[in-house]
C-alpha cells in the first residue's frame, strides 16, 4: 500500500484534485447514507445543496491529495494573518491550534512546521495494523510529531506546550466516550472534546484558530489564522460550547470546503484514554 501511495505522490496536485472531484461525486451519488448525512448536516447549518455543492468535490480532493502531502515534496503554502502566530509565540507559553474539518488540515500542520518550528498534532490511531503503520510513518517530518489519543499522547502534548511549542487538534471530531461533553454545534447537541481547552488552561498556552483553504486548480493552500474571541470559560460544558461556536465561525467563512459528510452528531465510541 505504501508503494501505491508513493506512486500517487509523484502526480501533480492539479491532477490529484481533478481525480478527487470525480471521487467525491461518485461517492455522493453512489451512497444514499453518505448523501443523506451530507445534506442533513449542511441543512442543520442552514445551507442547501446549491450553496455547498462544491463541498462534494472538495471531500474527494481531501482523499486524493493525501499521498502527495504524506509522501511528496513540499506543497505551496501561503499565509494570512501569520502575525497572530508571531504574537502568540512571543508569549513563550505554547500555542493550541484548533482546526475544523475544513479545507486541508494536513497542510496547516505541515506549513507551521516548515515555517515556525515544532508542532505536535493529535490523531486517532487506525484500527487496522497496516493502515496504522502507514499513517505513523507517513506523517514523520521535520518539526512535525503526531500524538495518539491515549494518555501517552496527552502527556506528549502537555510536554510540547510546556516547552513553548505548538499543538494542533480537530475539535469537531467526535472523541471517545469519557473525553467530551454534549454541547450545541449549529444548534444541535454534539459530543465535543474537552481536551483542547484543558490543555490551554493547564499550560497557559495561547489558543488560535486555523484552517487551510484549498486553492483552485491545484495552486496550493492558503492557511488562514484567526484569533480566539472572548474569555475561555472555566467549566468544561461552557468551554466546549465556545469551541463549537468558534468552529462554526470558521466553517461559515467557506462552507464549500467543510466535510459535511462527517458523522458529527454520532454517539461516542468506547473510551480510548
Offer a concise description of the structure.
By secondary structure, the protein is α/β, with parallel strands linked by helices. The protein is 47% helix and 18% strand.
Sequence-ordered SSE layout with sheet pairings:
Layout: H1 2-9, H2 13-30, H3 32-44, H4 49-52, H5 54-64, H6 66-71, E1 77-80, H7 83-91, E2 95-98, H8 105-115, E3 119-123, H9 129-138, E4 144-148, H10 151-162, E5 166-169, E6 180-185, E7 188-193, H11 195-203, E8 206-214, E9 221-227, H12 236-251
Description:
This protein has helices at 2-9, 13-30, 32-44, 49-52, 54-64, 66-71, 83-91, 105-115, 129-138, 151-162, 195-203, 236-251; strands spanning 77-80, 95-98, 119-123, 144-148, 166-169, 180-185, 188-193, 206-214, 221-227. By secondary structure, it is α/β, with parallel strands linked by helices. The strands form two sheets. It has a seven-stranded mixed beta sheet with strand order 1-9-8-2-5-3-4, sandwiched between helices. The mean pLDDT is 92.
Q: What is the chain-wise order of helices and strands?
A: HHHHHHEHEHEHEHEEEHEEH
Task: Figure out the total of helices.
Answer: 12
Q: Give the averaged pLDDT, no decimals.
A: 92
Question: How much strand?
Answer: 15-25%
The low-confidence runs, each spanning 5 or more residues with pLDDT under 50, are: none
Query: Approximately how much helix is present in the residues?
Result: 40-55%
Structural class: alpha/beta
Tally of strands? 9
Largest sheet: 7 strands, mixed
Q: Order of strands across the widest beta sheet?
A: 1-9-8-2-5-3-4
Shape: globular
Roughly how many Å apart are the termini? Answer: 29 Å
Radius of gyration: 18 Å
